[in-house]
Input
Amino acid sequence: MTAGEARAGSDGTGRDPSIGVAIPFYSNLGFLREALASLVVQTDRDWTAVVVDDCSPTAGASSVVEDLGDPRLRYVCNPVNLGLAGNFNRCLTEAGTDVVAIFHADDLLETNYVATIRGIHRDAPDAAVVAPMAAAIDSHGSPIDTAVDKLKRRMWPGGQRHSLRGDAGLARLMHAFFVYCPAMSYRPALLPDQPFDPRWRQVMDLDLFARVLLNGGTIELDRTTVYRYRRHDGTVTSQNARSFTRLDEETRLAYEVAALARAQHWRRTAFAARLHWSQRLNGVVAVASSLRSGESMGRGDAIRDLLSVTPRPSRGASRH
Output
């Protein structure tokens, strides 16, 4: 798709982009009910949505969808477990709309989420990805403000809108991953083939954003808080931090991005990726937590990652 075609909308009519919300689901029906309840009360009612069940071991997601009785919402189940990346990729194609938001099933939307992302995508039709601001909540839905959330706000660029592009944009992301991935929405027509790489379990998003920017694309940021991101022990991020999968993948991806940036003479990105200070800081926190808990599995490799100047061999990807 050319930039001109993107400005005109996917059908060339100049209309607002159609919005699809795809909800990847694997566990916790209670969170899913809350998530869908926040979707159906959107002020902008012109959307469609699909829950994509990745062979959940818990039955009942289809009933949760049916009980809402909303014709805009449907349910599909993968014939086999696709894993995180595979299910995210199916979400992007299953929605069938100009713009697709991948709404995590344990999070919540503010009532102006759809209206906000539609407006941003309309104003920035060349953006492959749109990233609004999010606020954190705990497992009960109460507001929290962790050190991570404070850092994200501090690193977020000034002004209401900001476009990430080129060497400067990717360097900013590699210095500190300050965006909230679950809040993001995508124009599938502007994404690379196989957007989410199945090699990864934790860094699929950063890997995609790096490829978008390295290929000349744009990520549009907006400071409007329209998403509530639930932090709890059951999230994949929490599990990966405890097992050091997060540090392992962040380290390997950082060196991959550094190599690609050097090949394109993107010096700022290459430096930021090799340093990857915020990822190392996350790793220090994980190692300290393992020392307090007495869990030593993987700690040696984690310490080597923290001190590394080159990546270790891959552990390999996994599914749910």
